[in-house]
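Hi R.,

Here are the chain sequences for the assembly we discussed:
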Amino acid sequence: MNVSRSPDLSGMTMRLPVGVWVEGVRYREASLRALSGSDEETIGDASSWPSPAARVTALLTAAVMRIGALAPIDVEQIRALTVLDRDAVLIALRQRLFGDRIQSTIICPNAECGKPIDLDFRLSDLPVPDRSGDTRRYEFTIDGRSVAYRLPDGGDQEAAAGLVGTAVDQAEQIILRRCVENFDELSADQVAALHAEMARRDPQLDDEFDAHCPECGRDFGVHFDIQDFLLREISGTRLQLYRQVHTLAWYYHWSEAEILAMPFQKRHIYLDLLSDLVSEIAEARA
Ligand SMILES: [Zn+2]
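And here is the predicted structure of the full complex:
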């Protein structure tokens, strides 16, 4: 993943794997701003969003300031980003917020074992598929007729969100209906052929890992979902966020709103300075 960090605290730029087309011009350079405590608080509250996909859209709308010549970026433009682009931005944000390394625990899928297994890898090691040859729309010929389609985006993820995990077939139908022109005119066989073509055309992040359980010796594949993982992480650090607000308010007498408005990195700089100060005082007293 190409992540170039600007020298200041305000943000970063990255290259979207797919990008956005406007009037035949493709834009791929995205400028991201640093997330604030308010962003973490809003996105971290899962109960206030209809679906994980909607939370991702909100997170990206807060973070993405510019794509090429396009600015500001609104929520509909974020929804229209392909799933791969959304995942790539989430990875860049995660690297910025919590670092590149992922340490997690999964449960061995062998029902007779079920022991926890440590997962440890770097996001920068995930290969991003080359999508330089992409176009905005594709044509696919089935049984002599040409069918136009586009690749799934965030809006499709949001539309199908309620069915993912329960009715996968229905979720797929909803997404295909949105992506394929004149979908209802296709036969079941034609839909299956088109589905296979779209899957071939839309390689996602290679996020399947070979894992091994040291307890029972079983080898299995693990799917890493950056959307799910980062949302859980942001939700999981909410108590920590309030503790940090409490600490800074206690020492500096800043208001909650002022502290929550700070970029993540700036908040952590002040916390590090405080930590150094507390250590110095403790050493002086010893
Ligand atoms: Zn096992």
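Residues 1-8 have pLDDT under 50 and may be disordered. The chain has three domains: 3-128+206-236, 138-201, 238-285.

Let me know if anything looks off.

Best,
T.
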